[in-house]
Specification:
This protein starts with 7 loop residues before the first helix and ends in a 20-residue tail after the last helix. It is of the alpha/beta class. Helix content is 22%, strand content 27%. 38% of the residues are buried. The protein has eight helices and 13 strands.
């Protein structure tokens, strides 16, 4: 039952070229940076990644993306990642963009053994009708486009069929975890981390605080250990390293200024 692995390198050692990875995190919140760095050091490539976004600046999945290690991304948000946009538009990267709620439910469904489900999200758009560019040819043309999806009517409302997602591995970050793999996530890092963890056949969690079994109240567990196969305890320095994507500082008003 003790799922603790000594190092991140040991935890990801069996990740191979072409593996599919579900990766937790929302923006820069709750991103498993230590495990991602270990995958980078492993040298594998041709990875298929499922994640809300593909990293920002020089952190998260942007580390693997910039190195050309990712061949396909299933996600919801490109944001300000210019390298992501460049590779996508240049035909170097296959990208399946999915409505954010649908992505979350596809991960959850895969983890629960649900092969597919119907949702109204995307009805009447290219999400349902097909034709969304998955890969460009580098010359402005579309080399590969999304196929049309099954549409069915329930009680007068149309829904499209979406399939659950299962991946070879999942990489997640938790605020607290015990040796049995029970995890607790902090605030917005709870958005995609539990869902990504559920979707992985082998789920690896880096935890900021490792505690003994029984120290987490069962009512406080966000993800039960049945979904987690390996746990890596972060050092205090690794746990404290949390980057800020955009810092905004207001200019202080001069003393004596009277507001109108």
């Amino acid at each position: 039952m003790d799922k603790v692995v000594a190092t991140a390198d040991e935890a990801v050692a069996d990740v191979r070229d072409g593996a599919a990875l579900a990766v937790g995190g929302f923006g820069l919140s709750g991103v498993p940076d230590v495990l991602i760095a270990a995958v980078y050091d492993l040298g594998v490539s041709g990875l298929s990644v499922v994640s809300n976004n593909c990293g920002a600046m020089d952190s998260g999945l942007a580390v693997l993306l910039s190195a050309g290690r990712i061949s396909r991304v299933t996600g919801s948000y490109i944001g300000g990642n210019k390298e992501f946009a460049r590779q996508y538009l240049g035909g170097e990267l296959e990208v399946e963009m999915i409505p954010q709620g649908t992505l979350a439910e596809r991960l959850r469904a895969g983890g629960c053994g649900i092969p597919a489900f119907y949702t109204p999200a995307g009805v009447g758009t290219q999400v349902a009708e097909g034709g969304l560019p998955w890969r460009y040819d580098g010359q402005g043309g579309v080399l590969l486009a999304s196929p049309p999806k099954e549409v069915r009517e329930f009680d007068g409302t149309e829904y499209i069929l979406e399939h659950g997602i299962r991946t070879d591995f999942a990489l997640v970050r938790a605020a607290k975890g015990d040796r049995h793999g029970n995890l607790v996530f902090n605030k917005s890092s709870r958005n995609f981390n539990p869902l990504a963890a559920m979707a992985g056949k082998v789920t690896i969690a880096e935890v900021e605080e490792l505690v003994e079994p029984g120290e987490i109240d069962p009512d406080e567990v966000h993800l039960p250990g049945i979904f987690v196969q390996r746990v890596v305890a972060l050092t205090p320095e690794q746990a404290a390293c949390k980057k800020i994507e955009r810092r905004t500082i207001s200019v202080p008003e001069a003393r004596g200024t009277v507001r109108s």
